Structures are given as C-alpha cells and as structure tokens.
Amino acid sequence: MGPLVLRVKCKSGQKILESLSPDCTLNELKAKLCQVTGIKTDVMQILQGYPPKAVDTRNDKMTLQECNISSGETIIVEEKQNLNNEESVQEQPRKHITEQENFGDSPGILMKMVVPADDSCLFTSIGFVLNGKVDTTIAKDMRQIIVSAVSANPEIYNEAYLGKTNKDYCEWISKSTSWGGAIELAILSKKYGVEIVVVDSSNGIINRFGEDCHYATRVFLIFDGIHYDPLYMESMNGDVIQSVFLTEDEAVLGQAMSLAQEAKSSHQYTDVKKFTLRCMECDCRLTGSEAAHKHALDTKHQSFGEIV
Hints:
Number of helices: 9
CATH class of the largest domain: Alpha Beta
Strand content: 25-35%
Largest sheet: 8 strands, mixed
Radius of gyration: 20 Å
CATH topology of the largest domain: Cathepsin B, Chain A
Number of domains: 3
CATH architecture of the largest domain: Alpha-Beta Complex
Helix content: 25-40%
Shape: globular
Structural class: alpha+beta
C-alpha cells in the first residue's frame, strides 16, 4: 500500500502529513501528530469527517485502515480541555475576567481557545467568552433561548428569513446536530446584551452582531468556514485572560481585524463552497457543504471526509 497523505488542522495552522501508511497504528499516528502540532499524545483529541467527529483512540494498536482514516482526508487535532486537572491548574494559575468592573488596561494579545469540534461549537464558544469556561452542556439552553425567540415572533422570523417555516426551524435548531450561524448569533447577542464580533478567516473580515444596539461590551469569536472558536486576551505575563471587552476599546477591535487578515493570508480556513468531500459510506465525491447536505438528505449518509 502506498503512503497516506493527510491534511492536519490544529491551533497553529495547517500541516501536510505524508510519512504514514494504512498499516500504521493509531499510536504511530499520534506520535507523528505530536511532532507536527506540539500537542502531547495524552491530551490529544483527533477528529475526522464532515461534520468532524472524534476518533476513538482508546485502542491505539488499531491500524489507520481499521479506523477508516484514508489518504486525502483532513483531520483535526486539538488539545482536550480537562477543567478538573489540578496539576494543570497549578502549572498555569490564571484569572479569567468577564466582569466589567474588573477590566484593566494592561497590554495583551488576542488568542484562540480551541473548543470541541462538534455541532455546537458556536454555543460552546459563546459560553466561554461570557462565563469563562469551556462547557459543552450550555448548548442545550442556548438552543432553547433561540427557539423561544423565534417561535414568539413568527412575523419577524418567517419562512423567507429562516429558509424554512418557523415551526420547522424551531424543530431543526433544537437538535444537537444542527449548526448555529448568523441568525443564532443575532438572537444571542440581543439575549445577553453584548456585541458579538466574528473574525472570519475565509475572507479576512469581521462581522459584528448587535453593533447597532450600542451595547457597552463586546466579545470575539473566530470562524474558519465550518468551526467557531472563542477569542480571549492574554496578559503579557500570562496570569490573566479576558474575554469580555468595552465596545469603546478600539485597540482590541484592531487586533481582531489584524487576526482576520493573518488567518486569511495563512489559509486557516475551509472554503465550504469549493472543498471536495468524499462520502465515507458510498465513496461518492462531492463539492461543497451544500452538496454534502443534499447527499445526506437523499441517502441518509452522515460521514464525510475532506479530500486534499
């Protein structure tokens, strides 16, 4: 068998891995990924397919072929967030500022916090910037907030606006497999009384939700075409992070704009209209997320992999 060619996405950008074969084990894959990403194998999480799903790495003697990892795929590598790891807390004791009375003027740098690449990454990201922790259980409550807002205003949230009937939309967004986007961001911005700024790495621009409401504070997310992560400011000495900012703080907004341009120039995004997918169940080749969605509706197939 020939060597595998894998595209690897991680917090430091994108890599190409070419030194493995289908007969290599998950243990060997993790060792190689550790080298290229800097993420230790004991806290490493590997995701594959479209939408991304976690690979079960408990049996690391399984071959890549047995795990359905094939040449041309894109895999995502992230660091598990273990909030109960006391040793990690002791190594990096940091105060997370989300309350306005604790805002300071200390210089820092805007950074990305990687959250799980599941179908609720938007909600998890908003939870982090508002509450200061990665909590995947918050998605259910946020989905209910959206359902309540939409169902209570059928004139505003009509079929033309939603792309489906009000009732169908409410049923759809209630499902844990449904992705959030602009509609949900606008509703959550109003609910929490905060401007939400989204750094879009696919086009190098920022989108502001709630800008016209003149809220006192704002938060930042980054979007790569299929996944949202929260952004936070880390102080120069690393002991404080901040994820809620005054809307009058133009310096932070400037950093966000620079980050958008940097992410675009380094191609830290997925072009959802042009990227090529392979159905992992029937081997059908598809172009773009819309084609994948239609294929899933027609065939009930749910596992897709991006082709390099």
